[in-house]
Protein: DNA-binding protein Msp_0595
Amino acid sequence: MSDLDEIRRRRMEQLKQQQLAAQQQQGASLEQMQQEEQARQQFENQKKNALRQILTPEARQRLANLRLTKAELVNAIEMQLIQMAQAKRLQIPVTDATLKQILRETTSNKREIHITRK
Structure:
C-alpha cells in the first residue's frame, strides 16, 4: 500500500504544479490584456484631447453623429485631422463648414455603382 500512496502523492504534486502553472499563465495573459486595454484607453484619451483642441464643438458633434453610422470613416478622419494639425497643414480650430468640406472630399473618392435593369 505504501507504493500506491507514494504514486498518489506524486500524482497530486504533479496536478498541483500543473494547476499552479496554468494559474500563472492565466495571470500573465490577464496582465497583458489589462496593459493592452490601458494603452488603448490612454491612446483614446490623447486622441480625444487632441480633437478637442482641433475641432469646434459643432464639428465634434457632427463627427459624433456620423460615428453612429460610419465608425470606420470617422476614425480615419479623426486620425487625418490630427496628422494634419501636427503638420500645421490645418487652420485650427476646424469649423463645422471646414469639416463638411473634408468629409465631402473624403467620401467623394468612392466610386458609385449603378445597376440598370432591363
